[in-house]
Specification:
This protein is of the alpha/beta class. It has one domain: Rossmann fold (3-Layer(aba) Sandwich). It has 5 helices and 5 strands. The protein has helices at about 10-25, 35-45, 60-70, 85-95, 110-120; strands at about 1-5, 25-30, 50, 75-80, 100-105. The chain has a 5-stranded parallel beta sheet with strand order 2-1-3-4-5, with helices on both faces. Strand 1, helix 1 and strand 2 (about 25-30) form a beta-alpha-beta unit. It starts with a strand and ends with a helix. The relative contact order is 0.18.
Length: about 120
């Protein structure tokens, strides 16, 4: 299974990528929503996208809204992984098409638990 990690922090992309690779995912990376859309155009929709909220160019919420308007994305699960903890932000992300929401800081176990809830475990 493939996962796309979308975060402007190289360190966060590495941390999330390492966790997902240990679980058995092949991973791709993007530094913002526009880079993620380019990655998808070149590689197709992954089974999972882990998306930060606060990024330059195109933030995570904008990315979720844009990708959910494209055909062929129905099987892709989107998990927001962010510091945004207000209930309104959680609701906005879920209403826009995110399937799960994980707040930073997180653990490997919390990522694994969310993946189980999403039904995307290699």
């Amino acid at each position: 299974m493939r996962a796309l990690i979308v975060d402007d922090s190289r360190t966060m992309r590495m941390i999330v990528g390492n966790i997902l690779q240990e679980i058995g995912f092949e991973t791709g990376n993007a530094g913002n929503g526009l880079e993620a859309l380019t990655w998808i155009e070149q590689n197709g929709f992954p089974e999972l996208a882990c998306v930060d909220w606060n990024m330059p160019e195109m933030n995570g919420l904008e990315f979720v809204r844009e990708v959910r308007q494209r055909s062929g994305n129905e099987a892709m699960k989107i998990m927001m992984i962010t510091t945004e903890s207000e209930a309104d932000n959680v609701m906005a992300a879920l209403e826009s098409g995110a399937n799960e929401y994980l707040m930073k800081p997180f653990s490997k176990d919390s990522v694994a638990d969310k993946l189980t809830l999403l039904g995307v475990r290699p």
